[in-house]
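FORM 7B: Structural annotation worksheet

SECTION A. Query
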Amino acid sequence: MTGRGWRAALRIARREAWRAKGRSLLIVLMVALPVFGASAADVTYRSQQLDTGERLARQIGRADARLTEPVSDLPIAQDPVDDGRFVLRGDLGPAAQPQPRTDVRSVLPPGAAVLTDTVARTTIRTGFGLAGADWREFDYDAPIAHGIAVPTGGRAPRAADEVAVTDRLLRAGGLKIGGTLTEYNTGRVFRIVGTVKLPDHLDARQVFALPAAGVLDAMAGQGRPTERKFLVDAPDGAYTWDRVRALNDRGIVVLSRAVAEHPPPDDEVPYLREGGADFRALSDMQIAVGVVVVGMALLEVVLLAGPAFAVGARRRRRDFGLVAVVGGDRRHIRTIVLADGAVLGGVAGVLGTGLGSAAAWFARGWFSSFSGKELGHFDVRPLELAGIAALGMAIGLVSAAIPAVLASRESVAASLTGRRGVRRGSRVLPVAGVLLGAAGVAVAYYGAKVAADDTVLLTGCVVAELGVIACCPALLGLAARCGRVLPLTPRLALRDAARNRPRTAPAVAAVMAALAGATSVTAYWASTDHDARADYRAQARQGQVLATNGYENGRGLRQAADILAASLPVSGPGLVRGYRDVCAPNSGCLTVSLQLPAELRCPLDDLSGPGAIEAARTARTDPRCQAENRPSIFGLPVGDPETVRRITGSTGPEIADALRTGAVVFDRRYVKDGMVTVAVRTLTPQDTASPTTVSTVSAAAPPPAEPAPRLVAIPARYVAPAEDIPALAVLGEEAARAIGVPPGDIGILFDTVSMPSEADEQRARAQLDGVVTGVYFDVERGYQGRPSTQLLLLAAATVVVALGAAGVATGLALADGRRDLATLGAVGAPPRVRRALSAAQSWVIALVGTVLGLAVGLLPAAALRWRTAKAAADAFDMSGDGAFGISRPDVPLVVPWAEMGLALLVVPLLAAVVAAVCTRTRVTVGTRAG
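SECTION B. Predicted structure
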């Protein structure tokens, strides 16, 4: 049509939208919902995606570089812009010789200003008792450090006896500005003069003191580990990429402002050749998730809005017939329907973009507190928002395309009389749908596992969903046949849905698409949470209180057990007796530990000196070196079945039988032919002397060999532990007598009646302080997960769209079924029956759509997990971690059954309730058209 014709069609569309306000509002809401979600997600994502200046301000303040004190004397390869990513260089070769540990101050450029940032874990006295915290000696108020820690109250420390604490520690410890806290190891008292927050770690519990405080120097003198970094203000050009690589050769990790602002090309980054590219691929999975979900969301919106325009076109059939009578052709009718899409899509785009941007602004505080990371500046990108708004208009046009074609093909007589007719379902469409679905799954698998291409992966998911949509009419017919056993009202609703498939199938597809997107994000979220949970290593069973006293040989444990029993909600006996399997450095002691059979021991356990790294890389496929080694916090306990129950939660007569003559072992590898080998070693101070550095180990001066152990064979029974536990085995009293060494107190393990609060923990630590020294306890609270920023955004957007889709599809079904309700009113049906039928019709649409959506939504999540598995396997093979007892990563798809079951109940019920509430009790019966 000409431009004048389009202008006329747009005027008609505007007037029709104003005349049919309810239907127009539904369409606008339907298109605006995803636009709203996309706008809010875009602004929030851009706000948390810090630019280089913001990121560097949080990491190095105004410094030119940050140098990290080396923990190894071996050359490394690092990421140019992220000093947290580095790997050992793989080109060392078997003849590589270790170099002396580098002093960072010796490699600073002349005239450079330096500010040290040293941190270590310590214990402080709080308002409730004792608590753990990071002690950080760092002058965050210095100009060079501006931006790393943001003051939130009071002032910065100015004297050696003043400190500032993070807001999270202030609240958790019952502290206040003007009060005091005591550093446990030195006993020194400090006055709290201010509070700060770390923008990238809002939950951090840190104490900031000046370097002159000297607490960390005292801790280093006690042999406690500290981490030291150096902020350097250097002349221009001091830290180029070539200089950074030269420092990497000496084991120093560098974050350079110049390199971060102007990163080198990938071919000049050794880190990428050492497996860093695969680590980047793992971090880029969040982008892949966004690509897939956004692509599915676009299809979802088209499926949501299409039925709305189809309903509007059917209700205007008489108008289109009159247009044809006065000389209009099919092009005019198509243009009028498309103009509806343009007008309503444009309004929805502008409205959704504006509301989404406003929502992103008001949700900044909540989002920061939930994600634990403060957002950057409010980053509104007009071009992106304009594109999202234009996308709303494009969605309107695309959604109106098929209804426009169908309306233009309607005969004039049928349009004027208003007769619908009954169409038989196509037999070809279900077969084509099945073939499309199978092809989509195959393409998605290829894109994830073979090509590693997001576009191919997304194409496969879309094709599979289109295949299921093609099967919707046939599935509705099948559901109607299965409805014979249902009561009258749902049976009528099912038959009506099958009879009016041109109306019902698009609505079912709309709900299906909405639930598919929500299911995809939820399943991927659950799977990534499973990965993090699998990486978590508990010290004991959840809810238990565990305590040890380091190398103190049981001193004070009995008194500590009495104190903990009186101050915490614990039950049962707590003291654990047994043998230690380690000695304190530079001291003699007797150790008792389990010994693996010779054929199961990793050959790398005895490697040292030149060539050890190369040998580790070549042995990474040895299954003996890939087996996971469980930590044994308690050493080797001795006890009865109650001890086994406390440690593992397992009970049974077989445990008591095993303990009468031998031991219960929780690692199958140690049991051979029903026996376990116990090694008894007597070590001298020379045997436990602390090595200075790794670099002292060489072929010329091998490490001193430990004395040969005395081996004792004991009958054993394997019991599989259900979760992480603090011991490898429990010996019976008879086994202890066979070893010939009397057991002693080695730890404390309590069950709890209720989970202790943080205040309870701090009070208990305070009661232990001064009475018992060297006893450290912890409450095992289990895995505490938190979703990433990107997944949180996607989940919020998809939940809003899914609930909105169910409500809007219900409204459209009510609008299109108004004539049926009028017929029921004409024959005398009471309002209760009309409400029940409307609720049943919406319940059928939502139920079928929800079931299909839950099933289809698992495919994108599975495809993303396939791709994650491939990237993780590639990274594992490149890193050689298998040579150090690290097993190949397991990347399963976790199906969120609970959430899916909740959606299966809530979404159809919500649709039915909305339909029942919105159904008019008074129905006006009009004259029949024609």
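SECTION C. Observations
The two ends are 30 Å apart (CA to CA). The chain is about 50% helix and 15% strand.

SECTION D. Sign-off
Analyst initials: ____
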